[in-house]
């Protein structure tokens, strides 16, 4: 490195190298986090959240018992309930298999709610379905890239 | 689960985590990761999520076996 | 029309389409961005790529490089996906949805660039991919902090002014979009001179420009 | 502040240190160390009863480990 | 209900022994003791038929892990 | 309190005898079921133990054998009586197949232990005593001193032969 | 709950500082990929701290986005370095003959019961493990076509939810099944991508 280079030239040499990009970005993130750390303790948790959890350890659907009767309206604290006229139907729905599980045993709540129906399906498919559209598209695109490169090189 | 049990199993998990960092041998590291999971399993059981525990305890060994694919012994100690 | 807290979001509301909790909308500003993105997406669909011309030194001969049709199809697919993601990011009315669209723009940009066999170009695409993955911390983290501190993700609520969004969340969002949309600033170096396929490369530039404009609007309005 | 949460935070920090500065600075050492912050996240999810997320996370960890193993074994074979 | 405290204490003891031991082959038996203790704890914590399946799944899983580690340590399958 | 401790100790001795007998009957100390078991045996021998005892310890580590069968059978009896023990035996069988174990020591041990544990619950023992007792029993084999335990097992193995 | 959130944020901030410091010092590209995996975990912690059902529904897409980006970037890395599949005898241990059949059966069956993202990932773990240990026949095209159709089915289900909400029941069933198929198919392709397969 020649000694008579100005400091700006040196910095621009570092920045212009692609290999240093990751380190630069990481450094920037560290700076933001350190500055943010000053304000972090003052971030108050808003107690009025959407889709709040209510736990009922006695229920057979334990971590995911959100109440409601199947094929009836269930109050779900969505952002805009009027946009999803059938919000709550999926939450309360149990397939025959999951109904049988719920009647039989006490510790299968996660399996029951992952089976079609339940609060998570309500959010993922109904009220926030667009998120899931984008997400599956990302999966599609990423695997498109991977399989294109894989096949080209093999 | 009362306080004493919490402390005991937390101790198991912490011993595993710290030793996984400090071990230099690759098999030692893997064993220590297994110990961490041993400390965590009772916490899942105590909350009553048994189906999750079954699934997780079958998948964690699969992860370990996948890592073992690149752990051939000839690369290092005698 | 709906029970939304504000009917006036970034100018007079032109059109609203509700997907459950995610209410997409057009304001004059985003409509302009949308039309811009739409034009380039259509361009990517209909255009034929330019062919690069190599001159042989010491003579008058020149030849055009052969464009691999497989590569062309792949790049066109990626460019269209990138355009669609940009369109989505322009109109969405939800912070988390916006971050997802931004990630999709990032990954399609990787795809457009990574299609080349040139090692330098691949290296640039790889470094950019690492940054785009790192950017998921600020992006998702920013959206998560917005959710935790205000209790909502909808821009219709957040733009009203009643909610105090923490500064760190805004900084995270900007940082995240910087990571996802950083591509043109250095891919350009490796890319313009060494690779063919101009309209698709253009898509990289357009999408990141529009992402920046959009995130600026979001951060200022919150 | 449940015990799971506190334990999860401690293990997360230990794991980040372990993965950031693994003791033998090898690919394998770092890959194994990456499991530890994963367990920290698992405990934090457990503390908030996010069981579906926990289950998905463990599955994704296995698959991403496989992806990384594939890259590492090719890299080591090339050396 | 002293059994569960006894089992938990044995788990800690075994974990410490496994950490202190240097040799991989001699480490694994200590881990095995810890797995016994944890599997017992799962059933002792929750008296439910599914807890039995969970304990068996944990035990089989960790045994499989130990088996795989030991076999890799031994240099893989002897062929031919 | 003291009575329960006494029960646990008695249960430990009973299950120790049970699983060592079954394992030696099924010739576990003879050869390692998988290469990992042989490696553990070599390391234990290098640490001052006996080879055949070490082989048996390696087999215990590498596959659910009679000791695991006893533990799970005690758990099964604790949660659901005799049927629980038989379910535990089935689970041990699946575990044996997963772990590339050719033998049937685990399954046999589980079935035997089911009836033994059930019998003792009729005379004042609790099934939990057997769970804790089995952990203590396995501790004496695997967790205290590998050299001494393997020599002891080797001596028993010579008696069997 | 109220105390836990700021504490969690401080912990994550400390973790980000440590992890990114390691990243700044790291020069090797493969090590950088490994560290980005760490970054994904930290992003998920931030979402998990919100602790509502909504947070959980946000984690699931976040996870899948993370793994697909990791997949693409590692493939770019392999292409960039021009790395080849290792030659020489494949690595075998005994349990790789016995475990995959039973474990993959359990995991795939359980995954199909679960459905949706979770089920897709669990079933894919089983499939990846099976392909890894037992080798595979090349049927890329079939798997990819299946997942393409699954994607289209899911989009159809989305429009049912949005425009014909009265038929929500069919929407749930189609969506659960289609996402299961899609995620599982894509992820199990990873298992076949290791190439070769053991000569058993």
UniProtKB/TrEMBL annotation, chain B:
Domain of life: Archaea
Stored InterPro entries: EhaD-like (IPR019213)
Name of the protein described by the UniProt record: EhaD family protein
Keyword terms: Membrane, Transmembrane, Transmembrane helix
Pfam families: EhaD
Annotated transmembrane regions: 30-46, 53-70
From TrEMBL, chain D:
Domain of life: Archaea
Keywords: Membrane, Transmembrane, Transmembrane helix
Pfam (any one): EhaE
Transmembrane regions listed in the UniProt entry: 5-21, 54-72
Protein name: DUF2107 family protein
Species this chain originates from: Methanoculleus nereidis
UniProtKB/TrEMBL annotation, chain E:
InterPro entries the record matches: EhaC-like
Membrane-crossing residue ranges in chain numbering: 34-60
Keywords: Membrane, Transmembrane, Transmembrane helix
Keyword Membrane: yes
Highest taxon of source: Archaea
Name the UniProt record assigns to this protein: DUF2109 domain-containing protein
Species for this entry: Methanoculleus nereidis
UniProtKB/TrEMBL annotation, chain G:
Pfam families: EhaG (PF09878)
Spans through the membrane: 6-24, 33-52, 58-79, 100-131, 151-181
Presence of keyword Transmembrane helix: yes
UniProt keyword terms in alphabetical order: Membrane, Transmembrane, Transmembrane helix
Recorded superkingdom: Archaea
Record's protein name: EhaG family protein
């Amino acid at each position: 490195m020649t000694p008579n280079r100005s400091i700006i030239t040196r910095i621009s040499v570092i920045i212009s190298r692609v290999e240093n990009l990751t380190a630069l970005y990481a450094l920037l993130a560290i700076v933001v986090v350190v500055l943010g750390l000053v304000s972090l303790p003052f971030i108050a948790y808003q107690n009025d959240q959407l889709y709040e959890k209510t736990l009922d350890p006695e229920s057979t659907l334990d971590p995911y018992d959100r109440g409601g009767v199947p094929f009836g309206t269930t109050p779900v604290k969505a952002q805009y309930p009027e946009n999803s006229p059938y919000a709550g139907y999926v939450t309360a729905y149990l397939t025959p298999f999951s109904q049988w599980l719920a009647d039989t045993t006490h510790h299968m709540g996660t399996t029951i709610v992952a089976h079609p129906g339940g609060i998570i399906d309500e959010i993922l498919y109904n009220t926030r379905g667009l998120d899931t559209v984008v997400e599956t598209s990302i999966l599609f695109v990423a695997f498109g890239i991977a399989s294109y490169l894989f096949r080209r090189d093999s | 689960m009362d306080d004493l049990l919490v402390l005991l199993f937390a101790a198991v998990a912490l011993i595993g985590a710290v030793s996984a960092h400090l071990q230099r041998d690759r098999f030692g590291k893997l064993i220590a990761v297994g110990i961490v999971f041993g400390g965590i399993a009772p916490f899942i059981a105590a909350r009553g999520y048994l189906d999750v525990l079954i699934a997780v305890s079958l998948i964690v060994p699969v992860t370990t076996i996948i890592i073992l694919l690149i752990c051939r012994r000839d690369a290092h100690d005698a | 029309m709906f029970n939304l807290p504000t009917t006036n979001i970034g100018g007079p509301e032109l059109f609203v389409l509700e997907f459950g909790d995610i209410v997409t909308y057009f304001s004059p500003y985003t409509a302009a961005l949308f039309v811009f993105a739409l034009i380039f997406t259509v361009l990517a669909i209909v255009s034929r790529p330019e062919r690069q011309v190599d001159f042989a030194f010491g003579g008058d001969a020149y030849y055009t490089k052969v464009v691999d049709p497989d590569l062309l199809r792949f790049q066109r697919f990626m460019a269209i996906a990138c355009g669609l993601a940009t369109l989505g990011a322009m109109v969405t009315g939800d912070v988390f949805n916006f971050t997802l669209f931004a990630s999709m723009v990032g990954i399609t940009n990787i795809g457009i660039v990574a299609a080349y066999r040139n090692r330098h170009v691949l290296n640039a695409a790889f470094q950019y991919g690492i940054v785009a993955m790192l950017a998921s911390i600020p992006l998702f983290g920013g959206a998560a902090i917005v959710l935790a501190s205000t209790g909502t993700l909808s821009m219709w609520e957040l733009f009203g002014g009643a909610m105090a969004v923490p500064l760190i969340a805004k900084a995270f969002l900007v940082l995240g979009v910087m990571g996802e949309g950083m591509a043109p600033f250095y891919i350009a170096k490796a890319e313009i001179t060494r690779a063919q396929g101009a309209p698709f490369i253009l898509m990289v530039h357009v999408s990141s420009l529009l992402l920046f404009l959009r995130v600026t609007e979001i951060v200022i309005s919150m | 502040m449940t015990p799971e949460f506190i334990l999860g935070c401690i293990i997360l920090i230990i794991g980040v240190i372990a993965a950031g500065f693994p003791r033998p600075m090898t690919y394998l050492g770092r890959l194994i160390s990456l499991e530890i912050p994963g367990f920290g996240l698992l405990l934090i999810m457990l503390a908030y009863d996010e069981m579906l997320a926990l289950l998905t996370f463990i599955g994704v960890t296995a698959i991403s480990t496989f992806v990384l193993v594939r890259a590492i074994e090719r890299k080591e074979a090339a050396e | 209900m002293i059994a569960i405290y006894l089992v938990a204490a044995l788990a800690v003891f075994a974990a410490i022994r496994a950490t202190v031991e240097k040799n991989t082959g001699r480490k694994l038996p200590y881990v095995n003791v810890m797995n016994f203790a944890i599997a017992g704890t799962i059933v002792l914590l929750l008296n439910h038929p599914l807890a039995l399946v969970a304990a068996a799944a944990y035990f089989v899983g960790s045994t499989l892990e130990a088996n795989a580690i030991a076999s890799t340590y031994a240099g893989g399958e002897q062929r031919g | 309190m003291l009575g329960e401790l006494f029960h646990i100790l008695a249960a430990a001795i009973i299950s120790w005898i049970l699983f060592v007998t079954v394992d030696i009957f099924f010739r576990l100390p003879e050869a390692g079921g998988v290469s990992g078991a042989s490696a553990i045996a070599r390391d234990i021998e290098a640490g001052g133990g006996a080879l055949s005892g070490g082989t048996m310890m390696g087999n215990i580590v590498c596959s659910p054998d009679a000791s695991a069968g006893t533990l799970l059978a005690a758990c099964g009896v604790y949660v659901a009586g005799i049927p629980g023990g038989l379910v535990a035996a089935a689970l041990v069988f699946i575990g044996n197949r997963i772990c590339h174990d050719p033998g049937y020591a685990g399954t046999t041990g589980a079935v035997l232990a089911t009836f033994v544990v059930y019998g003792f619950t009729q005379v004042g023992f609790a099934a939990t005593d057997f769970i804790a007792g089995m952990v203590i029993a396995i501790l004496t084999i695997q967790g205290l001193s590998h050299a001494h335990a393997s020599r002891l097992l080797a001596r028993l193995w010579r008696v069997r032969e | 709950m109220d105390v836990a959130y700021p504490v969690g944020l401080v912990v994550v901030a400390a973790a980000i500082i440590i992890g990114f410091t390691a990243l700044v010092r790291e020069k090797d590209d493969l090590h950088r990929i490994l560290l980005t995996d760490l970054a994904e975990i930290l992003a998920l912690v931030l979402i998990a701290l919100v602790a509502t059902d909504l947070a959980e529904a946000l984690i699931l897409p976040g996870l899948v986005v993370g793994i697909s980006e990791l997949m693409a970037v590692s493939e770019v890395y392999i292409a960039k370095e021009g790395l080849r599949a290792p030659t020489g005898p494949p690595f075998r241990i005994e349990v790789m003959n016995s475990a995959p059949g039973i474990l993959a059966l359990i995991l795939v069956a359980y995954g199909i019961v679960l459905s949706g993202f979770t089920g897709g990932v669990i079933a894919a773990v089983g499939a990846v493990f099976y392909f890894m240990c037992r080798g595979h026949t090349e049927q890329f095209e079939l798997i990819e076509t299946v997942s393409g159709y699954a994607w289209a089915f899911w989009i159809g289900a989305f429009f049912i939810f949005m425009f014909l909400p009265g038929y929500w029941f069919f929407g749930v069933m189609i969506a659960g099944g289609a996402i299961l198929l899609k995620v599982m198919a894509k992820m199990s392709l990873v298992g076949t991508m290791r190439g070769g397969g053991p000569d058993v």
